[in-house]
Design goal:
heterodimer; A: 420 residues; alpha/beta; Rossmann fold; 2 domains; 15 strands; 46% helix; B: 298 residues; mainly alpha; two-stranded antiparallel ribbon; 12 helices; 2 strands; 3% strand
């Protein structure tokens, strides 16, 4: 090698210039974006949202933001907390951990947020959680369902205000253990959430009822549109009951296939969030009846004054019924405001101390932020889909409410996973 | 050997028919992709997005007409035409100016349209899940050896061959089709004999988009119409096109058959890993016939 030929150098130089130009444009664009977005008032308490605002997950995340806005608006109207308004900015993580992490870094380092919140993606949540630990910024996870968040990878700076797959599994196992079924089939979306929810349900179910056995499994790709071949195969295997571990879009897709094949009439099945409005409302009167499901929020149950008031208020503001995300957003606003109030000043460590063990009233009853693992203990509803003359969509019938403390893993169990 | 016994069980026939019906939508979408790829040489990444628009349009049309058979049929006509119109605008407004540029430019342009259309769908239809209900006559299912086969899958079994014949007629029996095939082989020669290749390309692009829209309208009653449905489809469609032979419409048909049937029969044999069979088929084809099952126009 005697060095590059002059010709080659010329090309490289040209490319270099183009790249420089390109980077220049990019930097200008970025500067413009940040300049526009930096909208915090000088003395505001700054909350930074990192969440998925593009793609299919927006069907859930918009409710979180709307629930939060509604409640925080009321708090600010009364003068805010400690005489300061609570303000927020949002960043789109596009459901990607690397982007989510970059956004969270920007919020912490440039915007100096007091608190990070958000994300429906477990991968983003875990990445941001790691940053929160390093930067010592509190981070409240709003929607991600991985039990690692407050379980094995939990730490002082991370909180969760939604149920996780382990909790859903325990609650569902409680409901199913009383049923007479023994031959179970497991089917689901072939990604982490699908597997973890299926494992959680089945492992706890077999503890509670040793007679149950798994006769087979089927797994399909996330985003599968046609479940008919899977359904006919499961029917041919003749199980008593099927645990269907779908999430997101898969919930509705599977129910539609169940309806058109009459699957629900031949074999009963369970899906976490099968009874939730996000799953049932798009299908109108044509959702399958008799599907077992669990959910943390139903706008019509419990039929208490508080729940009614929350649902009415949300409907009035956004012209739709609140779904589970709306409850998360509402809880988030309440926890944040109450914690700063209790802390007495806007301080990251004091905020965490205040959050630990905090209780508050909610539309679904009292709830607690457990001090040991920073996991919220909220009630879970177990029910079965049925038609209702009152609504344009199916609702949950025979609902039983499982209080948080009955289905959360014990503090000792959580600490064991962290020690590993 | 235990695996094989599943293949000859009572479920085989229904699994085979379900697989065939699945093939229909795969074929309709991938044949459109293949046409555009073969004649215009554009790997249209936005094809999946057009399919998504077709599904959303079908939703809107069915709601506008208030459900029922008439509304459903109207959706099957209007949604693909709407997507074709969008395709026409895209082709005349953007792609037609770039045919002389490198493929990379065209690829980037289609990719940007995939993103833009995704956002447009979000602006127009919002982020909520949408769902359409089949007309009452098509709800429910027939029984084949004790296992259900939804009536709608039976409809798809009929639609598939109809579309295949339609495409055959367009490509082989119309003047436009013949010119398009000639242009695929040698576009300079075609323009040299005085034919306006631009319009041939526009026609092909619009036809491809029509097929994407039709696929979307047909899938609408089976699935949850949501953002992101484009991503899951476009990968399958490209695999099918690659497996069948780039740009060959009959290759797309063969590829869809292989893809749909290996999936449904694979599920029967090994449900836990049913997901891998169509992809194994793709790998096998690429190893033994790297240029695809049928001859590629590239």
């Amino acid at each position: 090698m005697t060095g590059p030929e002059p010709h080659a150098v010329g090309i490289h130089k040209k490319e270099g210039e183009t790249v420089k130009k390109f980077l220049g444009v990019l930097a200008a664009a970025a500067a413009l974006t940040f300049a526009v977005s930096a909208g915090f008032a000088a003395d505001a308490i700054k909350v930074g949202f990192v969440d998925t605002y593009t793609g299919p997950a927006t069907a859930y995340t918009n409710d979180v933001l709307d629930g939060f806005k509604l409640e925080i608006g009321k708090i600010n109207a009364k003068g805010g907390v400690l005489g300061r308004k609570i303000e927020f900015v949002t960043r789109d993580d596009k459901y990607k951990p690397d982007i989510g992490l970059t956004m969270a870094k920007e919020l912490v380092l440039k915007e100096n947020v007091d608190l990070l919140v958000g994300t429906i993606s477990s991968a983003v949540a875990l990445a941001v959680s790691d940053l929160a630990k390093k930067e010592k910024v509190p981070f409240i996870v709003t929607f991600a369902k991985s039990d690692k968040i407050t379980g094995s990878m939990g730490h002082r700076y991370v909180f969760s205000i939604s149920e996780n797959s382990e909790m859903a599994g325990r609650a569902a196992a409680k409901g199913l253990a009383k049923k007479p079924y023994t031959k179970y089939w497991i089917a689901g979306d072939d990604y982490e959430y699908g597997h973890s929810i299926a494992n959680a349900v089945f492992s706890h179910l077999s503890e509670l009822n040793p007679k149950v056995q798994k006769i087979g499994e089927s797994w399909w790709k996330e985003g599968e549109t046609d479940f008919t071949p899977y359904i006919t195969q499961i029917l041919a295997a003749k199980p008593d009951f099927v645990i269907v571990a779908t999430g997101g879009r898969g919930m509705v897709n599977f129910q539609k296939a169940a309806q058109s094949t009459g699957f629900n009439k031949r074999v009963p099945f369970y899906q976490h969030t099968a009874i939730e409005l996000s799953t049932l409302s798009p299908q109108g009167q044509n959702a399958p009846e008799g599907v077992y499901g669990t959910a943390n929020y139903l706008f019509y149950f419990p039929a208490t004054k508080e729940n009614q008031a929350f649902a009415d208020e949300f409907k009035k503001a956004y012209n739709r019924q609140p779904k589970i995300g709306a409850l998360y957003g509402h809880l988030l606003a309440k926890f944040v405001a109450k914690a700063y109030q209790k802390a007495g000043k806007v301080d990251k460590e004091k905020f965490i101390d205040a959050m630990e063990g905090m209780t508050l009233d909610s539309p679904v009853g009292p709830m607690e932020m457990r001090a040991c693992d920073h996991q919220v203990a909220l009630p879970m509803f177990f029910g079965v889909t049925k038609k209702s003359p009152q609504y344009e969509h199916l609702v949950a019938g025979d609902v039983i409410s499982v209080p948080g403390k009955e289905y959360l893993p014990s503090c000792a169990d959580v600490m064991k996973t962290r020690a590993k | 050997m235990e695996f094989l016994s599943h293949l000859f069980s009572s479920g085989t026939l229904s699994q085979f028919l379900v697989g065939l019906s699945r093939t229909t939508i795969l074929f309709i979408v991938s044949s459109g992709l293949s046409l555009i790829l073969g004649i215009l040489r554009i790997p249209n990444v936005a094809h999946g997005s057009l399919y998504m628009v077709g599904a959303f349009l079908a939703y809107s049309v069915i709601h506008l007409f208030g459900g029922g058979v008439a509304a459903f049929v109207a959706a099957l006509v209007i949604a693909p035409l709407g997507v074709a119109a969008l395709g026409f605008v895209l082709e005349r407004g953007f792609f037609s100016h770039l045919y002389e540029r490198e493929h990379l430019m065209l690829l980037l342009l289609t990719f940007s349209f995939a993103l833009i259309i995704g956002d447009l769908v979000k602006i127009v239809w919002g982020t909520e899940y949408r769902s359409v209900t089949l007309p009452v006559v098509l709800q429910g299912s027939a029984e084949i050896l004790g296992l259900p086969l939804p009536y709608y899958n039976l409809v798809l079994l009929l639609v598939g061959p109809v579309i295949a014949v339609f495409l055959w007629l367009v490509i082989n029996r119309t003047k436009m089709g013949k010119i398009a095939r000639a242009a695929a082989v040698d576009r300079e020669m075609v323009s040299a004999v005085g034919i306006n290749v631009g319009w041939v390309f526009a026609f092909t692009f619009v036809l491809g988009c029509f097929l994407a829209g039709l696929g979307g309208a047909l899938i609408a009653p089976m699935t949850n119409i949501s953002l992101g449905m484009d991503h899951s489809l476009i990968i399958e469609a490209f695999l099918i096109v690659i497996m069948g032979g780039l740009g060959n419409v009959w290759g797309a048909l063969l590829g869809s058959l292989v893809f749909g049937l290996t999936q449904s029969l694979g599920i029967l044999v090994w449900p836990k890993f049913g997901i891998v069979f169509p992809y194994l088929a793709v790998v096998a084809v690429l190893v033994f016939r790297p240029r695809g099952l049928l001859s590629s126009t590239w």
